[in-house]
Amino acid sequence: MRIARKGTWDIIGSTVCVLVLDKLQLKSERQKMSYMYRHFTALQQISRRTIASSARRQVDNKVRQKQKLFQEDNGMPIHLKGGAKDALLYRATMGLTILGSAYVVYELLSAASPKKK
């Protein structure tokens, strides 16, 4: 059985679109479907192995370390115990909260004042 590697797309039956190889010299439609099914299942197995093998590395559980860090009584505010990233996040949150509150008050005052005609 000699198979060329160039292919064209063709519709088999009326359900799926599969790659039919040019010069595929198989005797029956059943042999063609069997050939394509074998290649399809091989491709499935390769893709499963690739996905499954990439998730095997072990990830350390850092919850206990973080609990110890945040629960120790050292007089430091909780928003500073996480480091520089947490301090920056806290400041950005507070800044946006103050700006948002000021904007709400401005809009309420402008809505409450009568419009000049």
TrEMBL record:
Gene3D superfamilies: Cytochrome c oxidase, subunit VIIa. Its main location: mitochondrion. One of its GO terms (cellular component) is respiratory chain complex IV. It is found in: Mitochondrion inner membrane. GO terms for molecular function: oxidoreductase activity. Belongs to the cytochrome c oxidase VIIa family. This is Cytochrome c oxidase subunit 7A2, mitochondrial. It comes from Clupea harengus (Atlantic herring). The gene is LOC105909457.
